[in-house]
Design a protein that fits this description.
About 40% of the residues lie in helices and about 15% in strands. The chain is α/β, with parallel strands linked by helices. The chain is globular, with a radius of gyration of 18 Å. Bound molecules: NADP nicotinamide-adenine-dinucleotide phosphate.
Length: about 270
């Protein structure tokens, strides 16, 4: 039954984690692997880092593979799914994590079309069509997925889904799109027993936030930006994803899980 779904060595999940080579995605991939899932670690450019993540999973007794693919490319997405199925069979968990920040934090009045297109292609169009492809496969190959496992899709969005930053509007738009995408797929896939979740990280210490570390050090540690006065860690996000993957929320879909140190609380 779906409410008993859990990751176990006897009925392991097969999970794709996009952008699993670094940062949040890597923490998610390793945590899922350590929890017993077979993990497909997608990466774009960081081959060595992806292989390291796979090794970490294997050293803990788990199974992992790496796939180089650009999530913004139709061919890349199709190949990712094909390779995943070829090695591990039907995919029952997709974590849409891969994402990019704008190369330049440009004022809204200076945002270039190139940056807008790049951000939307990687952060929104890629996850949309990968979800579509994986969902079709989950429906078509339901008989190959262990009945104890509830297939799921988890989208990693951001506090930028609802926080207006006028120096990276294209990023905010891409993440707001992910929020609606979650609602859409959750509505459409419930009848097939597939739940869809949005995990919404706050400020997390990764390469992505490296260039703005000093700014956020001050905001978090001195100015009280967050009720929980520390940077988020990739492991904070990974724990939320593993809880969902273990079937902790069987009667929730389209749900947002804030992993943001309380940033979302409106305070006075
Ligand atoms: P990161 O450290 O920069 O890592 C990004 C990951 O995405 C890398 O594994 C990278 O792969 C992969 N990637 C980038 N473009 C790709 C593409 N076209 N195809 C496939 N993979 C691609 O970023 P992060 O901080 O971990 O962020 C992960 C996700 O969380 C993103 O969606 C981001 O928007 C979101 N998020 C981050 C924060 C934060 O504070 N860090 C907050 C909220 C939300 P390669 O290294 O192989 O290129």
């Amino acid at each position: 039954m779906a409410q008993d779904a859990s990751i176990s060595r006897s009925a392991p999940r097969t999970a794709i984690v996009t952008g699993g080579s670094r940062g949040i995605g890597r923490a998610i991939a390793v945590a899922l692997g350590q929890a017993g899932a077979r993990v497909v670690i997608n990466y774009f450019a960081s081959r060595d880092a992806a292989l390291e993540a796979a090794t970490e999973i294997e050293q803990a007794g788990g199974q992992a593979m790496t796939v180089q693919a650009d999530v913004s490319s139709p061919d890349g997405r199709a190949r990712m799914l094909e390779e995943a199925q070829g090695r591990f069979g039907a995919v029952d968990l997709l974590v849409n994590n891969a994402g990019i920040a704008p190369k330049v934090r440009a004022d809204l009045l200076e945002t270039s079309e190139e940056s807008f297109d790049d951000l939307l292609a990687t952060n929104l169009k890629g996850p949309f069509f990968l979800s579509q492809a994986v969902a079709r496969q989950m429906i078509a190959r339901r008989d190959q997925i262990d009945p104890a496992i509830a297939p799921a899709i988890i989208n990693i969005s951001s506090i930028s889904a609802y926080t207006a930053s006028v120096n990276r509007g294209e990023y905010c738009i891409s993440k707001a799109g992910i929020a609606m995408m979650t609602q859409l797929f959750a509505s459409r896939l419930a009848e097939h027993g597939i739940n869809v979740y949005e995990v919404r990280p706050g400020v997390i210490a990764t390469d992505m936030t490296g260039p703005v570390k000093a700014k956020y050090d001050k905001l978090i540690l001195e100015d009280g930006l967050l009720p929980i006065r520390r940077w988020g860690q990739p492991s904070d996000v990974a724990k939320a994803v593993v809880a969902i993957a273990e079937g902790a929320f069987p009667y929730s879909t389209g749900q947002v899980l804030d992993v943001d140190g309380g940033f979302h609380i409106r305070r006075l």
